[in-house]
Amino acid sequence: RRRYAGDPGAVEIIVADNASTDRTSDVARAHGARVVSEPRRVIAAVRNTGAAVATGDILVFVDADSVIHPDTFARVAQALSSDRVVGGATGVTMDRWSAGIAVTYALLEAWCWVSGWDTGVLFCRRETFDTVGGFPERLLFAEDLAFYGGLRRLGRARGQRFIRLAGVRTVTSTRKFDQFGDWGWPLANAKVLWYALLHSSRERAMVERHWYQVRR
Q1: For the ranges 28-42, 148-162, 172-186, which has the lowest average pLDDT?
Q2: Closest CA to 33 of 57, 53, 48, 19
Q3: Closest listed residue to residue 132, CA positions, set 115, 147, 118
Q4: pLDDT tens per residue across span 132-172
Q5: Which residues of 7-136 form beta strands (DSSP E)?
Q6: Which residue has the higher pLDDT, 168 or 188?
């Protein structure tokens, strides 16, 4: 807020509490955030619940285990001042590094370049979000990929583009690597994807283990 040159008071912070068992809600409220509850273990539903109570014309999404760059809000507002931009993201960097994390990161960056998917802070206009239909709650994971796809299709139809902001990468936690191992987390992701492709009954259990039952 302090680095936002427009109106710092216009930056509304909403925490969507997904049945947390720690002091997430108390800490968020103590720092002036609005807290809403979403008990469903569906990441898309959590994002949509936060968006539903937002009052601004611009929506900015970020996971709770990430730290945004201080210039993020200013750069988002600048990007969306152009009618040629449908939305965008910031990309990420990691809060620690190792050989396994570096390889995973390199593969992720390559995938972003090839697929057009992206990571970090995601932003778009409220009108755009509503037109796309928000995040698809039928998906237990990869809801962000589906949403990116919707943004890009809408952008092409309108003559707009999806962009990555330079110089404001989000620092994301390596907690999943801490739990599954620096080489094990990519393999864990691959296993979840495999069960999803097979429409296996084990998909729900794997999603719980890999996204919700995480050691602190």
Answers
A1: 172-186
A2: 53
A3: 147
A4: 999 999 887 778 888 988 999 999 999 999 999 999 999 99
A5: 14-17, 34-37, 58-61, 66-67, 85-89, 92-94, 122-125
A6: 168
* Residue whose token pair is 């492709």: 197
- Three-state secondary structure call for residue 39: coil
Phi first, then psi, for residue 162 (nearest 5°) are -95, 130
- Give the residue from 43, 23, 180, 29 showing the smallest Cα distance to 98: 180
Cα dihedral 34, 207, 120, 156 in deg (nearest 10): -100
Q: Tell me the C-alpha distance between 70 and 119, whole Å.
A: 17
Q: What are phi and psi of 36, to 5 degrees?
A: -125, 150
Mean pLDDT to the nearest integer, 61-78 = 94
Under 8 Å between Cβ of 91 and 119: yes
User: Which positions ≥6 away from 102 have C-beta within 8 Å?
Assistant: none
